[in-house]
């Protein structure tokens, strides 16, 4: 809505660079490089065709981003506006730790990007695109000198295609988003309880019976791998075993530890189904399967999952118990270590390095196995001390709907990891954002990944000292718009989804209501709604942004007002936001009365609640301004209203309840004391 867009425009006293991740070194200068129809790009150095194709993509994106029709094709480097140079070729298969540095210089006369190879050139191009902004005289890039390189070599995004199928075109556009913020590992979760999502020509019943009809052909996989490489991104597949493996058993029940029969799980959670690690036939099957998949995926790393094995099916199986007794295997953890060791040897035979979640670090697992830590810094540090290379995901679970600031302040080398020796710290390869797909669909997945993942990308790329949260949010807003031009739909899906709920006429006031709300955090939604793979994710909770910019800025303004440190415009911004949240109730009332849509009708109570909170907030501001305490009865009623709003309504969370409570407490003084 207009009042939101005007209020959410960041207040600035001077122009600042909207770069994310923030580079290692930035020096600004005077002047700017104009970008008009005369702008051209030329290529020098190593004849890597990826550099030329990247340059053509830059021209296309720049033309879309500015609306200026650029000259097609590449120009002679001797006369080009932007000259890019890759000094050497890249590895045939992109390697962990391959040089990704670059230097970018922009002057009023032209620009250069110089890098050791195509990877750095592509990163430099993304930085150049972020520099381009509209000014008084047209589009331009400011004069700068940037020297940049990543802090960590493994900067990833996991997308779970098992619980919900994510079509190839959605994968591709998210690869473009990854490239825009310099992420370089696409971790592709391809099997779980709910589905097996890839074509196996050697074991075809995996996809024929285990996919529900939705899977990637091997040709589609090859296309995505090529697409990713063109953007400097490695593709690491994950096939979860021995747990999270029900989808394997639908077609091949002989792999399972239980009696069956097996069907694809439609609910979410942790189930007991697990492979039988005691049968030689299990390893013969896996050898055949892994030979096929390791040929398909060229990356040297291969993820086998290994998490959340309950062991209950093993405990109930007499043959497995006899196997354990005969070999002196005393616990399920030891049995899993036996399985992991056997699979690791198979992968090593096919020249792959195993990656697994924390649980694979049991028994005599060789140090060459890479540990991905979902449990936290303590497990990460323990793995590094044992000589394992490690990747951190704890704190980067973007499916939990937590604010960007929470992810942004997760430091891979903090806590126990800060006590590692310098050599052990080098074993911390980086981290990955994880997009588990219980609550996402192809329509809303972009909004759950972006723009928050850009903050994680900065944590993994930029110097450790780059931690200013306010700066991060200012730049994140700009990068969110840049990601629109990269083809992401995290913003563009929003208005049509609201119109589906309320119709075009009522979408604006519904947007005002939505700006006061967020989805439940962590996995509370799974308990509130009992969702499944058959759920239609079309309610407001499925449309909401994981983090409301309006609610966050309102809360920050209230904190400053209450602390008597308010900026000149804080109260005006707070009052305008409260007025919008109050007014949406009246604007939506005809829709609630006249629409038969269940998608809309469930929102009537929360619309009333938000409006009442907003009116209470305005009254509290009046009391604060006057310095007069309200009647105790008003304070008690106001606090009760805020307390009631803490309970989910229509499966959503009212994010303005806490700051309104703070205003009420500030206005009420002693009467508002928390018991």
Strand order, biggest sheet? 10-9-8-15-14-13-12-11
| The CATH class of the largest domain | Alpha Beta
Report the CATH superfamily of the largest domain: Glycosidases
Taking all Cα atoms into account, the compactness measure Rg is 27 Å
The secondary structure category is: alpha/beta
CATH architectural arrangement of the largest domain: Alpha-Beta Barrel
Number of helices: 27
Please give the alpha-carbon distance between the first and last residues: 39 Å
Tell me the CATH topology of the largest domain. Answer: TIM Barrel
Tally the structural domains: 3
- Percent of residues in β-strands: 5-15%
User: What is the number of strand segments?
Assistant: 17
Spans of at least 5 consecutive residues with low confidence: 1-15, 670-675
Please estimate the helix content.
Answer: 40-55%
